[in-house]
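Human: Respectfully, please carefully check these tokens:
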Amino acid sequence: MKKVENHWFTGLVLSAGCQLLVYPGAFNMTTGPAHWELLQRGRAVDNQVYVATASPARDEAASYVAWGHSTVVNPWGEVISKAGSEEAVVYADIDLQYLADVRQQIPITAQRRVDLYSVSAVCDA
């Protein structure tokens, strides 16, 4: 799935009432420190949802060394729970009233102009 398609997919999911997006990922030791948390925080703010990401723990002896750091981000873009590089279980409270408050403060879904455009899937052959 291309990044642009992912954006449209997320929009479709949100229109169905999504409150939490869960993404698996295994960023490496270069992209992890630079982008892992940044992308999660961005998706949470862009879409006004909680975002949870699950990553493999770091194993320096593996053929692919993952960054780790499974994380939960609230819809304001704040990290509310985060693992380190080691194997761990991440717990977080998902406050649906807080989510509703954020959505009321910045009503991005109410400002969509569905009368001017529609979202449709385009598949590459």
Summary: The chain has three helices and four strands. Residues 112 and 118 are 10 Å apart (CA to CA). The first strand starts at residue 20 and ends at 24.
